[in-house]
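Batch manifest, entry 17 of 40.
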Amino acid sequence: MLQENIPTESTESLPGNGHAHTRLLSSNSTLLWKMVIPVFFGVILAGFMLTFLLTPTEDIYLSMMPVWAARVLAIVLFGVWVAFVARRLWRLKRVEANETHLYASDYWTTVRYPWTDVAGWSESRLLGKRIVIMHLHAPGRFGKQLPFLPSSLYKEWKAEQEAPSASSESPSDTANLS
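Output type: structure tokens
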């Protein structure tokens, strides 16, 4: 068996693989907000709804409202939760960026967008959390907007993009929609 010489010095001196270093712009808690919280509360609300629907009427005593109203309320509450999750939480993406591209992932599929496809970004709040939305010129696989929870590196990255730069093809050329 032939043993190769393994470099013991820092690998920073070795040539790169030709790919730009990407930065994670979205928070690691995106997975929690997109998958864990919807499933956890969905199971609780589904159990609450099924309890009211499957329990015989004579076994339920409610002094505040009739049983049929409680059943309708449980169904509506579950429906509102499912609609909220589908419209707000499941749309969250994992977002990474480098000098040439923006990468968006829904944890199953990753899509690469060149910075020329990005129209800008805006910020809003949802449940006390800051949400950043990357706006695209045309709809892509994930639509025309890519919402994500910003990481602690996002503020630093945004400051770099808003600072004047000499390069002509950089993310700082995109318009900020806020």
